[in-house]
Amino acid sequence: MAMRKEDTIKLVSAEGFEFVIDRKAAVVSDTLKSMLNSTGSNIRDAELGEVKLPEISTPVLEKVCEFFYWSLQFSNGIETEFDIEPEMTSDLMRAANLLHT
């Protein structure tokens, strides 16, 4: 079953790589949730369903997207571990702080 465009969000990394993810996964992030629901300065983001994240590199954003989906599964009672490579820890912490995740 194909997802409708309004059910997805496009996250764009610092290098310009695009991740199209389910809107339900994206709103795990309080920052993305407020950007997408905003009627203020971020209205363009909400209309386009696209959020540029120039502070977050492609590999880190990929891991963040994985976390969003993992978090949705966990909230549904499916307990699994979320693995983080040690060399990525500090970058992921900065991204989590930025995204309020």
TrEMBL record:
> Does the keyword field hold Phosphoprotein?
no
Query: What keywords appear on the UniProt entry?
Result: Nucleus
Source domain of life: Eukaryota
Involved pathway(s): Protein modification; protein ubiquitination
Subcellular localization: Nucleus
SMART domains found in the cross-reference section: Skp1
- Which InterPro entries does this UniProt record tie to the protein? ELC1, SKP1-like, SKP1/BTB/POZ_sf, Skp1_comp_POZ
GO cellular component labels: nucleus
Which PANTHER family does the record cross-reference, listed alphabetically? ELONGIN-C (PTHR20648)
Provide the protein name: Elongin-C
Give the classification, highest ranks.
Answer: Eukaryota, Viridiplantae, Streptophyta, Embryophyta, Tracheophyta
